[in-house]
């Protein structure tokens, strides 16, 4: 019996019709989390005849993500509409227990965890876990499930999984391995390219450009590092989006972007250094104040804030960041 067949047998024993299945992504889900959850929902239905619900905490804020859900007709339910009861079969997708980036109550132990971030201690208590740190996306992992089970992938799902891989690996510019490449090439012929184009190039509001303007004006370059803040935002995804954008600046290897969403400081770190270290760096930055996680070249964190401490907190995070990347003594230069 192969490793995959053992996984199938274990899942078959665990998934019973009398239990409702909930697939919960990390908060403010990105394309990879959305696609992987959509793919696993399809897998459960085709392999076991089991229906399931996809849920998420926070918001789906980024225009591309909204467009993805709309055009691919992906059913998603806000977590505040979910009742966590004893009969719930709980799947965590693209996240793990007690990471601080999902809405799973601390009292609930999930039945299944599928992720590609560093393995957490809490995950070792889960009955079924498939955590592949070397993979660049959960979408690749789910694609492998469908392929190994011999389940045909229809174009709508193929488009979602393809975009999930494309997005999370930044077109293979970071954190990608052979599984990502194989899955990407396998899915490509099945992709609905007209819909993919609409997902990648959505219309955006005037607020989007106001945030960019604010971020660019506040941005300061210290050697090979760049730091900025987008201030208060109704869309926490903008913090990561601005970080991705600013990493394209010539000569910049590390980027820190901060922003305020509701009563929390959201931070995003990106690096073009192939040696990585972004995840460890952010965890060190927020230690004792909040929670963080990520990969070698991309990471994020969240700190619950007290009133009136925005400037002090931003200054502290900037100092910690610049010290860790070795640019603390570099003079500040305005971006624009």
Walkthrough of the structure:
- This protein is α/β, with parallel strands linked by helices and 336 residues long.
- It has 2 domains: 198 residues, inorganic pyrophosphatase (n-terminal core) (Alpha-Beta Complex), CATH 3.90.1640.10; 129 residues, Diaminopimelate Epimerase, Chain A, domain 1 (Roll), CATH 3.10.310.40.
- 39% of the residues lie in helices and 20% in strands.
- It is built from 11 helices and 13 strands.
- It has a 7-stranded mixed beta sheet with strand order 11-12-10-9-8-7-13, sandwiched between helices.
- The chain starts with a helix and ends with a strand.
- The mean pLDDT is 94.
What's the gist of this structure?
The protein has eleven helices and 13 strands. It is an alpha/beta fold and 336 residues long.
Strand line-up in the sheet with most strands: 11-12-10-9-8-7-13
Major sheet size, sense and barrel closure: 7 strands, mixed
CATH class category label of the largest domain: Alpha Beta
CATH third-level topology of the largest domain: inorganic pyrophosphatase (n-terminal core)
**Count of alpha/pi helices:** 11
Uncertain segments are none
Number of domains: 2
| Rg from alpha-carbon coordinates | 20 Å
Strand segment tally: 13
Order of helices and strands: HEHEHEEEEHHHHHEEHEEHEEHE
CATH superfamily of the largest domain: inorganic pyrophosphatase (n-terminal core)
What oligomeric state is this?
single chain
Gap between N and C termini: 60 Å
Question: Rough shape?
Answer: globular
- What portion of residues belong to β-strands? 15-25%
The name of the CATH architecture of the largest domain is Alpha-Beta Complex
Give the overall pLDDT as a whole number.
94
Supply the helix-strand structural class: alpha/beta
């Amino acid at each position: 019996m192969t490793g995959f067949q053992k996984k199938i047998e274990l899942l078959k024993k665990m998934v019973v019709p009398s239990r409702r299945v909930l697939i919960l992504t990390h908060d403010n889900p990105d394309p990879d989390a959305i696609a992987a959850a959509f793919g696993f929902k399809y897998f459960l239905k085709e392999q076991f005849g089991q229906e399931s619900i996809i849920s998420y905490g926070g918001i789906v804020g980024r225009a591309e993500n909204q467009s993805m859900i709309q055009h691919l007709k992906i059913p998603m339910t806000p977590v505040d509409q979910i009742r966590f009861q004893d009969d719930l079969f709980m799947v965590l997708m693209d996240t793990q227990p007690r990471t601080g980036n999902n809405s799973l109550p601390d009292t609930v132990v999930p039945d299944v965890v599928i992720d590609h971030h560093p393995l957490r201690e809490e995950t070792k208590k889960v009955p079924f876990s498939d955590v592949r740190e070397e993979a660049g996306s959960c979408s690749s992992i789910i694609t492998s499930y469908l392929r190994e089970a011999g389940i045909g992938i229809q174009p709508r799902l193929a488009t979602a999984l393809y975009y999930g891989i494309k997005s999370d690996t930044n077109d293979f510019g970071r954190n990608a391995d052979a599984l990502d490449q194989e899955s990407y090439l396998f899915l490509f012929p099945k992709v609905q390219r007209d819909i993919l184009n609409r997902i990648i190039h959505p219309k955006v509001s005037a607020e989007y450009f106001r945030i960019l303007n604010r971020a660019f004006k506040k941005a300061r370059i210290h050697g090979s590092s760049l730091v900025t803040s987008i201030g208060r935002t109704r869309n926490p995804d903008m913090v990561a989006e601005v970080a991705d954008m600013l990493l394209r600046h010539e000569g910049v290897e590390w980027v820190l972007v901060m922003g305020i969403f509701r009563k929390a400081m959201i931070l995003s770190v990106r690096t073009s250094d192939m040696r990585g270290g972004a995840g460890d760096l952010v965890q060190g930055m927020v230690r004792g104040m909040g929670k963080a996680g990520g990969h070698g070249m991309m990471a994020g964190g969240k700190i619950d804030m007290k009133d009136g401490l925005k400037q002090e907190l931003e200054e502290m995070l900037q100092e910690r960041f610049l010290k860790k990347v070795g640019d603390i003594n570099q003079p500040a230069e305005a971006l624009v």
